[in-house]
Amino acid sequence: MNHTLLGTLQQQFSDSLFDPDNQQVLDLIKGESTLIKNRRLDIHRNNVFYSLGNALADLYPVVKKLTGDNFFNATASVYLHQNPPERAAMVYLGHTFPDFLKQFEHTQKLGWLIDVARLELAWHQSYHAQDSVPLTTTELASIPISQLAQTRLALHPSVRLMQSEFPASRIWAANQPDRSNDDTIDLDAGGEFLCVCRPEQEVMIIPESGETFIFLTALQQGKTLGEAVLDVQQINPDFLPTEVFAHSLAAGLLIKPEEC
Amino acid sequence: MSLPATSGISLKPVHYRQILDKLPATGWFEIHPENFMGNGGPPHHYLHAICEHYPLSMHGVGMSLGSAHGIDKQHLQALVELVKRYQPAQVSEHLAWSHYNNVFLNDLLPLPYHEESLAIVSDNIQRVQEALGRNILIENPSSYLDFNNSTLSEPEFLTELTRRTGCGLLLDVNNIYVSCTNLGLDPHYYIKGVPLAAVGEIHLAGHSVQQVDGMEIRIDDHGSVVKEDVWALHEHVLQRAARRLPVMIEWDTDVPTLPILLAEGTRANDIANCVLAPMRTEVF
Q1: Residue B2 lies in a domain
Q2: Which residues are bridge partners to B218 per DSSP?
Q3: What is the tally of structural domains in chain A?
Q4: Contacts of residue B79 in chain A, CB cutoff 8 Å?
């Protein structure tokens, strides 16, 4: 706590933004009546939660579209009152929103919605991730074959791996602004292994095979190529990494080892 | 390096590609550094490309210079890094607070003007200026309420900040109009109290008018063209300042097409040419 006049004012002002029934700060505000003072204060109450709500909606446009404006706005308001941002840069707002949806009583049973939120967060993080030059085929070929199994290759900083029990990426794609919304998606159509990445300027959402997903997850955990292959061979003893390498290089999912 | 004394406009993501394709005639662009505090990606890609062609102004909205508990270290460090990366011609911030008790309130909240707040804001400005290694401009806020225990007027408070910290002023003419109308003050009298020699930039923007319980309130929402009364007040400021200044057209909600934004900038240049005709210099 800050025991200055200003610190006290800021505490009371802040309290009245979160709880309009807390009217302590009104004594400090000039005005002819409580009603008028409250109306003036309302402008700030609206600014704070309206602007934060908009920033959250910018991050989760598909969740908003799927739930409708009223439901989304009410949910966002509860979330933001419980989890106000700590940082001024809105790029860091709302990263705990999928976790919130998981325990919020009105959404906790909507696993598909929670996974769409996770996917939107992964997209957002990939979009703003550190830039890096993807590994080329020539660079990979320059690693002596005898050292390949011991080599650790890092994933591109924009890569986010996500597993869903639902067709999350199909729901996401069907609800993009440029798509007509008449696709029918069966929620029981099966799960997805997703790789979200942005090797250059455009974010891509790639549905992967389970084998590729396990391989990439192993690399993300810092395992060597040899260990990654062994991880995949636990579900498919005949697995060879040739195709995964070709796909990862083409999609720009890897970077040079020294950039790890 | 300073901003050219001509008009500039807000840099908006929807205009990135069009700006790079057409390189439109505007003196400079202004950004909110908070929108570029992610590590990489398209925001940085486009900003780098646009900075190859135009001077840049960084106009912060999140430093919370009025916070009683001081400046947020993490935010200051993020600004220091951005300034190092892009070397903007100018850096500015608001006379307001938005951070309290580790919560960022995402609004420019009002300050009481008295000796204690003056000392706190001065300390905070100095801290930012030291970290950046340069002086910044401080913008007058748009106000919807004022406090009982203020002992200084806003122009007196701003004047004292420039004297104590060496900061310059970013005079937001729309904010003067909005605040004075909302609080029953005379905007011409306000302008008389501002040390115009310290002004390094002017802001113009649109605002909206709302009726609240029989009271007319003007909201500084940056969502429309500049109002005629604000253009008139801007002309008055230029006459008193008697010199060209960088003039920024802000537009943050319901962002219009690029030509509409550029047309507002052209109007600002035309006014400067008209008011300051005897001192005509080459328009950037």
Answers
A1: no
A2: B209
A3: 2
A4: none
